[in-house]
Design a protein that fits this description.
- By secondary structure, the protein is α+β, with helices and mostly antiparallel strands.
- The chain has helices spanning 17-30, 68-81, 123-132, 145-150, and strands at 2-8, 34-38, 42-44, 55-63, 96-102, 158-160.
- Strands 1, 2, 3, 4, 5 and 6 form a six-stranded antiparallel beta sheet that branches.
- 37% of the residues are buried.
């Protein structure tokens, strides 16, 4: 299974962060990628904590013939299309699309790193992922999603919208 995380906390060309995430899913399908499942949207605090606006986050399961490198390139093109400007790390953004897991593949060299190296510590990823993949196990840590969520810091809450 292929999973991506979606997030935004700034308005962009498609409108509000939530509107942008919805439009990004449509754009994926327009590019020939099947969105086989998607979570609800969640409101989360910025990580690390800052004075940025809260984020809207979700996770989708995709079906595609694109390999991980080509899929990541597509995700980056969509981020650009929706006004993402790369600069300071962890800065506010109009759209963030992360490749989380690609059929359990492990990649430690060159993008994309798989599974996503910080996903196990991020409530904004784990809570929506659990909604669509309750039996998912981390390919490297070999922990269930419930175990990963239980180990999250208290500031990693996610509120379902």
């Amino acid at each position: 299974m292929i999973y991506i995380a979606l997030g935004a906390n700034l308005a962009g060309p498609a409108g509000s962060p939530r509107d942008t995430l919805e439009a990004a899913l449509v754009s994926l399908e327009d590019a020939g990628v099947v969105v086989a499942a998607r979570s609800a949207w969640y409101r989360t605090s910025p990580v690390p904590a800052s004075d940025q606006p809260d984020y809207v986050n979700g996770v989708a399961r995709l079906v595609t013939d694109l390999d991980p490198v080509a899929l990541l390139a597509l995700l980056h093109r969509l981020e650009d299309q929706f006004g993402r400007r790369r600069g300071e790390i962890n800065a506010a953004r109009t759209l963030d699309l992360d490749l989380l897991d690609y059929d359990g593949l492990r990649r430690t060299q060159a993008p994309p790193l798989l599974p996503h190296p910080r996903m196990a510590d991020r409530g904004f990823v784990l809570f929506p992922l659990r909604e669509i993949a309750p039996d998912w196990r981390h390919p490297v840590l070999d922990q269930t999603i419930d175990a990963l969520i239980a180990g999250l810091a208290s500031d990693q809450a996610a509120v379902r919208l």
